[in-house]
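Session log. Operator J.P. requested a structure for one protein chain; no other inputs attached. Running the standard single-chain path with token output.
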Amino acid sequence: MTARITLAAIAGAHGVRGEVRLKLFADGIDALKAHDIVLVNGAPRRLLQAGGTPKSPIARLEGVNDRSAAESLRGTLIEVERDALPPLEEGEYYHSDLLGLACVDREGSAIGTVAAVENFGAGDLLEIALASGKKSLIPYRPGIADLEDGRIVLDPAFLA
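Structure written below.
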């Protein structure tokens, strides 16, 4: 079984014809539009339309024909199989590929694991679950946090 990647969550209904409002987790609506079939509650559904504005993305899904059906999907994830995503270029990564990776310092001593990847507009931040049980955000930047041999090598001076 391949891993599933969440592209969006349904935030509620939009209008009366079954469109749904989305909270996107991808780099825009085009990442969702690239897929004809998506998984909604784990079941395949045809993506009939995706659009709206960057601040208010919306979609139409097969079998969702009225406001009540759209509203019943509030909170539901829209996913695709990992192998349905386009191949990556050198230096590119999917956030999901970083989750769970071990974090070590330059000497190889264990620091923690990647618990989440956040982006508030200024670049990706790795949320590191430290061995102490605390969490810390660190910029995912060369020299601060580097992906090497399937793990994150980071500079502990940047841990809060």
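Operator note: The two ends are 37 Å apart (CA to CA).
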